[in-house]
Amino acid sequence: MEHFAQRILLLSGWRRAILSVALGALTALTQAPFHLFAIGFLTVPVLVWLLDGAVGATPGKASGALRAAFWIGWLFGLGYFTAGIWWLGNALLVEAPEFAWAIPLASLGLPAVLALFYGAACALARLVWSDGIGRIAALAAAFGLAEWARSFVLTGFPWNALGYALMPSPVMMQSAAIGGIFAMSAFAVLVFALPAQMAARRSAAVVGATLCVLLVGAHAGFGVWRLAQAPDPAAATDDAPIVRLVQPAIAQEQKMDQEARAATFRTLLDLTALDPAPAETPAVEDQAQAQGPASGPAPDIVVWPETSVPYLLTRDAAALAAIGETLLPDQMLLTGAVREEPGEEAGSVTGRYYNSVMAVTSGGVIAGAADKVHLVPFGEYLPFADLLGRLGLRAIAAADRGYSAAPARTTITLDGGLTVLPLVCYESIFPSLAVPPSGQRIDAIVNVTNDAWFGRTPGPWQHLHQTRLRAVETGLPVIRAANNGISAVIDPYGRTVARIGHDVKAVADIRLPATAQPLFSKQQQDNNFWLFTVILSAIAIAGRIRLRAFGGN
Predict the structure, then answer these.
(1) What's the structural domain count of the chain?
(2) Annotated catalytic residue: which of 425, 427, 473, 505?
(3) Residue 288 has pLDDT above 70, yes or no
């Protein structure tokens, strides 16, 4: 092992660059839908050895070593994000004549920008680099900070944070309840990197291997213990509301076809009107006639996906009436829809449009709405619109109107007192948005999305996996309705209690799981992340001081 590490350490030029990119690309296999987390124990130690050999053109000069470390990290990130989010380019094929030219920007340009965070992490870790476990602690702390920064810099895009790699199943998700995804990202890099110690002297190798086994064992053991205390995932009180997930599986091209609006709307209404369907055997529209009598009580709440209504409900009384006629008495619909807010400017009527979740009663009345707060740049709005608009550019998913961001998150309280926190599309990857506003009591998170943009790529599976972690962090069940998969109801421990697969047109009925008391509040989880970062940093600094004391550089 020591001989192999030395060969890695001495690589230079294009060989070092290609290996860095390849390591990142392989590490992407730790994420959904592959969940090959063991790969991290192979790739991250090699990254450590590459950083061991990071020296500039003039050995001993700190600035050269930092530049070398940055480029190693950037190339690693380029491989990781290119292999992990290449599928974003699929959205540009929906209107290929207008947007296909931008595929390289989505599939290579965005990864190149995100890779800057990993480059900065490696350079930061190199500042306090040493020759033992201290350097591994430095790398873990730096990557934790990088993932935290990715959640807000340039509006934020913390997709596929490294912490998700170590949480492929509910047993391994429970540690997220302690410090959230950013602490888990630091923890993941820590345990993945510890096998790098196998190339050190025997005593150091034993310590590294033992610590790795103990930390991974504690991580999994905590999950086993916490799930043992949890209620049966299928258990729910008889008075818990029954939720119906509606997944219409409508192709994105059809959703954008104005002439197909009536057929799209009819599909949603027909699925809503199906007989009650147990979640274990979702009812499919084409099989509706074969279902026979109702198999259980009717749903209380029906959930449609993001922007599923092809009309402006605030204008279209006929569409509202059709929804009201389809719903049973006392049923309510939560639907993704475009909400118009009329305005008046300089004597001409203008308006704002919001990507919203609306609550509609069986009387065909809009009883509440919550607008999306965190819009997708270039997807739902065009940054620098005055400049880029002159060049003929527009946002991909916003037609010609563009969307406005809501000034604050809003909850919706349904008949019966159930209060939900809507998260629209990729809002569910931001832990801060899953926190109830102003300390309100919330019964569930509702995530409506339209992942049909991305086809049958890893994107929908990655989105679902990240959304599951919001349940673990908050102690809230998650109701997720997706246009073309994957729809699910997730309990507060990240366990899927109802699911409709990709490309399946179906409904599933399930009683809403009860909330769970979170181990820590969001504020305390953030504090735990910073405490963990400080501890790792202290270990790294101590290792660096020790190295200097013995004549290192």
Answers:
(1) 2
(2) 425
(3) no
